[in-house]
Design a protein that fits this description.
Layout: E1 15-17, H1 31-45, E2 51-53, H2 57-65, E3 79-80, E4 83-84
Parallel strand pairs: 1-2
Antiparallel strand pairs: 3-4
Length: 85
């Protein structure tokens, strides 16, 4: 569960796409698009109204083509006991 958000104020659930990766030898064949379509179908099947992912510069064009939009999220790497988190 997630706290309410302006994009989904009445739902504390979000879908999250994590680590979609296509080996370079298999790129440009529609595999990522097919996987994203399957993931989006599953999100819909589960009744989720909002989903997030973190896009690389390589993946951003695909995600935008299939309807995803950039948000204002920011990140801060933290260090604990001298080691990266």
């Amino acid at each position: 569960t997630w706290p309410p958000h302006p994009s989904h104020p009445h739902d504390d659930r979000r879908g999250y796409i994590l680590n979609l990766y296509i080996d370079p030898a298999y790129r440009r064949r529609g595999l990522a698009r097919d996987l994203m379509q399957q993931a989006q179908s599953e999100l819909t099947r589960r009744g989720l109204a909002y989903a997030v992912l973190h896009a690389t510069s390589n993946g951003r064009k695909l995600y935008e083509k299939i309807g995803w939009a950039a948000t204002s999220e920011m990140a801060l790497p933290l260090v604990f006991d001298g080691m990266p988190a």
